[in-house]
Design brief:
globular, mainly alpha
């Protein structure tokens, strides 16, 4: 396996958790909800998935547990942000801090000071075709959930951009009064968007824990949730564009892994910082072109229509 093949393979795998989380956040942002707590949701999804796989030895059960954890948090966030008009900023920060603290506490309560690893790895269904030079491992050497994740993002992109549901979703963020005039409850649309979006974020956390690294540890996400928020914004809430940007992040993370396989003597800490520095430069370069929904982060009050 060459360094280039290792880089490309690791890039795709590393992009999956971020791609799912950023797509989920984009769905919420499209509806007008801003959740700064994606980091906490990913940690909750990762812990739920790891414990579920540890108990059941089933990756499907683990991934489902991660998605359910995210959807449950999304339901609570959506209800509080819409029905009770709670501050989305405060709720998001509370989720980020509370999720990090609670998952760390629950993990230590169950596993103590040990660091358990999954007893089995996820299957690679197309491994037989991975011998193709350069791109074989990247395209066919991935674990089966990677292909599921790509399909989910493609489907999300289609629904957001080209379906009637996507039209209602976008209108809820840009012109909620028009949604109300059409006889559709804006709060319900936003709650459903929060649930589905955070289910993807929880699934992203699950993918990080049980698909990419094979273990869970407190603070496992190391800021990926916050990068997902930025990616959703600079990706203009478009899942397909977000997937491309997530792959850039994956390339930067994969580059660190590939460099460690060479004779280059570079500090590990510098390699760890590289993907985050690259994302920061990307935000600076594309930040001026960001277009956000008109009511992002604002509570919708039906009685304000006449104002």
């Amino acid at each position: 396996m060459s360094v280039l093949e290792t880089l490309l393979m690791a890039a795709v795998l590393s992009a999956v958790p971020l791609m799912l989380a950023a797509t989920g956040e984009a769905i919420g942002q499209r509806s007008g909800l801003l959740n700064l707590g994606v980091e906490g949701v990913m940690l909750a999804g990762g812990l739920a998935a790891f414990v579920a796989v540890d108990l059941s030895s089933s990756f499907v059960v683990g991934l489902g547990a991660g998605a359910c954890a995210g959807a449950s948090i999304g339901l609570g966030f959506g209800v509080l942000a819409t029905r009770f008009a709670a501050s989305q900023i405060v709720l998001g920060l509370g989720l980020a801090l509370g999720g990090a603290g609670l998952t760390g506490f629950l993990f230590r309560e169950r596993y103590g000071l040990t660091q358990p690893l999954l007893a089995q790895g996820m299957e690679r269904p197309f491994d037989g075709a991975a011998d193709i030079p350069v791109v074989g491992l990247m395209l066919f050497g991935q674990k089966w959930f990677v292909y599921i994740a790509v399909c989910l993002v493609v489907l999300a992109g289609y629904l957001v951009r080209r379906s009637r549901a996507g039209l209602v979703l976008r209108a809820a963020g840009d012109s909620p009064f028009a949604v109300e005039a059409a006889g559709i409850d804006v709060s319900t649309v936003r709650i459903l968007a929060a649930m589905s979006g955070q289910a993807l974020a929880g699934l992203g956390g699950a993918a990080l824990a049980i698909v990419e690294v094979g273990f869970f540890a407190p603070g496992l996400t190391v800021g990926i949730g916050f990068i997902a928020i930025a990616l959703a914004m600079i990706g203009r809430q478009d899942p397909w564009l977000i997937a491309i940007l997530a792959l850039v992040f994956g390339l930067l993370r994969g580059a660190g892994t590939a460099i460690q396989l060479t004779d280059l003597r570079i500090q590990t800490e510098l390699l760890d910082v590289m993907p985050y520095a690259g994302m920061l430069l990307l935000v600076v370069a594309l930040g001026r072109r960001v277009r956000l929904p008109a009511t992002l982060g604002l509570a919708y009050h039906r009685e304000s229509r006449g104002a």
